[in-house]
Task: inverse folding
């Protein structure tokens, strides 16, 4: 009999790392039904869109497509309204509330964890300090409630997959659960190497506080070197105001524009702490080195002196020291070798590992 599979994701409002994982899961399980809180069809790939997609009641709330994060306190309740008893396998994709679904006693629940909710656990002080006075008053009781629910719902999962060793440690710390590390997929074949390298550095990603695009802007303002920034987010206008003439902020761009910039930049700047970080590997798949802060997922993808270098402090001075060090040995970074390293994280390898993990869990069910 054909296995009945459900994939639970927090929301579909774009195609970032979490959605790329779901896309690969959809290729593995073409018969799967998908459940989420909010779904914008125009924002997802055809691979995801061709599946049977169900939403929680959050989808029907006012302006949910834009204000979905404001409805976070309602999402635990929404998840528990889903009826998943008919499925043999449920795979939850966790970063926002997704793993808290209730399944039948014979259903296998595997959670692919991109991260325990950052704004609830270790990054709560950072989000809290950046909030307005009114928002702070609301956050205190709501986050307390979410922590209790998140910890309790962690026990509903049968097996955890962590997207990195960094996240595996956080799962153990906050949920007291062990996990198997399977790195997320990179579509290496979509990227290519070019010999036409331009004289600029590149930063790509959401322009939010923890990504630290502001650090890169401050560093490049000091040196006058060229920096191109691609992305959008709450810091966009602030960064435009403080950026010098040597810094070009392009905002949101198409995938074709992003690929072109990956392949032609001198190096990618990666100044934040990420749970894993797909962007550095996409740059490597394009043959370009990475200059990354020495913490988090970058330690698992960047090979010092081969695919990039690190800087040790999140200060403009430390970043500029690393850039100067890179420029002194730029010829040592070989595009073909960098791309070969990225191939270890290819989508097909990810799918093989996931299939083997699921098969092993099902055989023990």
Result:
């Amino acid at each position: 009999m054909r296995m009945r599979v459900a994939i639970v994701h927090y929301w579909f409002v774009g195609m970032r790392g979490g959605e790329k994982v779901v896309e690969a899961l959809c290729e593995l399980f073409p018969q799967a039904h998908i459940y989420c809180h909010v779904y914008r069809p125009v924002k997802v790939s055809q691979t995801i869109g061709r599946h049977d997609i169900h939403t929680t009641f959050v989808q029907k709330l006012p302006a949910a497509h834009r204000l979905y994060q404001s409805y976070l306190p309602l999402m635990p309740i929404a998840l528990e309204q889903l009826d998943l008893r008919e499925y043999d396998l449920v795979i939850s994709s966790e970063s926002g509330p997704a793993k808290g679904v209730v399944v039948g006693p014979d259903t296998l629940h595997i959670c692919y964890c991109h991260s325990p909710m950052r704004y609830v656990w270790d990054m709560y002080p950072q989000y809290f300090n950046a909030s307005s006075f009114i928002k702070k008053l609301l956050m205190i009781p709501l986050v307390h409630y979410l922590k209790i629910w998140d910890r309790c719902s962690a026990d509903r999962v049968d097996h955890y997959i962590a997207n990195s060793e960094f996240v595996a440690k956080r799962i153990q710390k906050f949920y007291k659960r062990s996990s198997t590390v399977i790195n997320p997929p990179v579509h290496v074949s979509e990227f290519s190497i070019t010999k036409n390298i331009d004289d600029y550095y590149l930063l790509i990603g959401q322009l939010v506080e923890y990504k630290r695009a502001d650090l890169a802007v401050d560093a490049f303002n000091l040196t006058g070197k060229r920096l191109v920034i691609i992305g959008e987010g709450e810091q966009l206008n602030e960064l435009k105001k403080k950026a010098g003439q040597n810094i070009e902020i392009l905002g949101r761009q198409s995938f074709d524009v992003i690929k072109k910039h990956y392949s032609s930049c001198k190096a990618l700047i990666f100044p934040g702490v990420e749970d894993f970080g797909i962007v550095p590997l996409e740059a490597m798949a394009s043959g370009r080195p990475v200059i990354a802060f020495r913490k988090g997922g970058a330690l698992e993808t960047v090979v010092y002196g081969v695919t990039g270098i690190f800087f040790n402090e999140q200060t403009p001075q430390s970043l500029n020291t690393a850039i100067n060090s890179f420029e002194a040995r730029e010829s040592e970074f070989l595009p073909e070798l960098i791309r070969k390293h990225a191939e270890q994280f290819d989508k097909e390898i990810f799918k093989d590992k996931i299939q083997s993990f699921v098969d092993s869990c099902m055989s023990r069910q």
Summary: The first strand starts at residue 5 and ends at 9. The chain has a mean pLDDT of 92.
